[in-house]
Amino acid sequence: MGIFQRLAGRPLKSMCIWSLWSRHSSALTAVGRVTSDRALIVTSCQLTQHRYVHRGGLGASPSNPGAAPPRLPFSRVTHDDLAFFRTLLPGRTITDPDLLKSSNVDWLKTVEGNSEVLLRPKTTEEVSQILRYCNERHLAVCPQGGNTGLVGGSVPVFDEIILSTSLMNQVMTFDNISGILTCQAGCVLENLSLYLEERDFIMPLDLGAKGSCHIGGNVSTNAGGLRLLRYGSLRGTVLGLEVVLADGRVLNCLATLRKDNTGYDLKQLFIGSEGTLGVITAVSILCPRKPKAVNVAFLGCSSFQQLLETFQCCRGMLGEILSAFEFLDASCMNLLEKHLKLTNPITECPFYIVIETAGSNSAHDEEKLHNFLEEVMTSSLVTDGTVATEATKIKALWSLRERVTEALTHEGYTYKYDISLPVEKIYDLVEDMRRHLGDMAKNVVGYGHVGDGNLHLNITSPSKDPALLTAIEPYVYEWTARWKGSISAEHGLGLKKRNYIYYSKPSEAVALMGSIKAMLDPKGILNPYKTLPDNIH
Ligand SMILES: O=C(O)CC[C@@H](O)C(=O)O
Ligand SMILES: [Zn+2]
Questions:
Q1: Nearest ligand 1 atom, CA 224
Q2: Start and end of every FAD-binding PCMH-type domain (predicted)?
């Protein structure tokens, strides 16, 4: 019997836990801590409208980068404003504090705003009217999709009006020859995946938060996820966008063309700009064909060096059918077992790999996977493994990788870092942090997207710990900058990381970002306190 048959035949002990993780599951409500110090640092409001100017000279970063910002001098929502919104959006202007609660707090429960109004438009025209009005009245707006972000970008910091895309959830067109889908921004990623699968296509991106996140939020944060290795980033697969600008103008760049060289590619400005330049209302996206054969292998390695060699071998031997190469370390596995009662399907190892293949011919793909597994097991790069070819087992193996974030929320307080590095360096950072922090941290765990050189470094402590934070930052960012990495590989900057931007971008580039912001949103009403550092405002 070949290795593939032997591995595929292994019983998966974890079959009872494969339910799809939704980030809004009730099991998650009791975790996290709510930051309550922001209200204390509100300073007196200036009466002038602010402009985006670069303060402090090139390269100057804010002196206390982690501190919450002071409230900027936006208008407060009045009864007249509410009357306007209620006429425009009858029954969709929410002011009940109980209904606003979940929209005011982020998924991690570490950032909480105090918005008193949630608007739920259904059409682009309604978004346009809302923004035109808010711009004239100088009311700040926080655009919100599924609110699954991890850097505090999708919730208000003070009393910004929340503009939710949750009712903008219609598929507009799908062309089954080109595979181009056009839909409203509030479509939930998983619903789009199901819609496409019925038509023999798939979405080019897949995330643990797929059950809640919106495609508009994915695009505005340039979400990466689990399939980037195979299908590339949203910067390549998004073909067109419709965006409402701060003053209400609608920018219809909803192209469905693969090739369009007519000057500046404006949609790129909005991809990854986290709602600070405009509100994305519709998206056209190029979708791959649904693979006919999908296999997942869950493997164990005894060192990170062996894991890297396995990756190298995997790329060479699986070639174009490789669709994901992910890892988690033994500390992650312990948390999955402890908090979520998941079962490790193989023997204990320091490192685990999830490999997915997606191809058009199952016999061909299985043979390739078999040859690869034979190679890595006979050369002892891999010490144990199991393979799934059937959908429920595939899901079960994937949940061991996808649910690490959820398991971490049960640990107390988690300091989260989403770092891009040269692939051979990614685990050095985890080991170095363990040495550096010693007993100060409860747990230092590493997992992520090996194929993209993207490490998720998470450091836990029983509760929020300022001394621990001082030991982590700026150390972790300096480490990253030394290796020319990025301090935010895929989660964005949001509220939490914006002041560290200088570790990854030259000051001239940050200043140019400020100029673009000033041009597109001169009153700064769109998602203030996010993405841009404090010294650009
Ligand atoms: O929790 C994190 O730090 C990472 C979340 C997500 O990007 C993942 O890859 O699972
Ligand atoms: Zn990730």
A1: 7
A2: 110-290
Nearest ligand by distance to the CA of 460: 1
What is the H or E stretch that residue 312 is in? helix 304-318
Measured by CA distance, the residue closest to atom 2 of ligand 1 is 405
Q: Check pLDDT > 70 for residue 51.
A: no
In the reported structure, the alpha carbon of residue 94 is separated from the centroid of ligand 1 by a whole-number distance in angstroms of: 31
The pLDDT, as a whole number, for residue 62 is 66
- Residue 405 CA to ligand 1 center (angstroms) comes to 6
Domains, the chain, with CATH or none: 3-30+291-405 (3.30.70.2190), 33-290+498-537 (3.30.465.10), 411-491 (3.30.70.2740)
For a pLDDT cut of 70, what percent of the chain falls above it?
A: 88
**Across all residues in the chain, what is the average pLDDT?**
90
Beta-carbon contacts of 350 under 8 Å, excluding residues fewer than 6 positions away, are: 301, 302, 303, 304, 329, 330
Residues with CB under 6 A from ligand 1: 150, 208, 405, 416, 418, 456, 458
Pairing relation of β-strands 351-359 and 322-329? antiparallel
**pLDDT given for residue 68 in this prediction:** 84
For residues 235 and 15, which has the higher predicted lDDT (pLDDT)? 235
What does the alpha-carbon distance between residue 335 and residue 349 come to, in Å, rounded to a whole number?
Answer: 14
- Interval 105-115: pLDDT, tens: 999 999 999 99
Distance CA 482, CA 437 (A): 19
Separation of CA 302 and ligand 1 centre (Å): 23
In this structure, which residue's CA is closest to atom 3 in ligand 1? 456
Q: Rounded to the nearest whole angstrom, what is the distance from the C-alpha of residue 44 to the centroid of ligand 1?
A: 37
- What pLDDT, on a 0 to 100 scale, did the predictor assign at position 295? 97
Q: Is the ipTM of this complex over 0.95?
A: yes
Determine which residue's CA is closest to atom 7 belonging to ligand 1.
Answer: 225
pLDDT at 33 exceeding the cut of 80:
no
Output the six-digit token pair for 353: 């790999």
| Nearest protein CA to atom 10 of ligand 1, as residue | 402
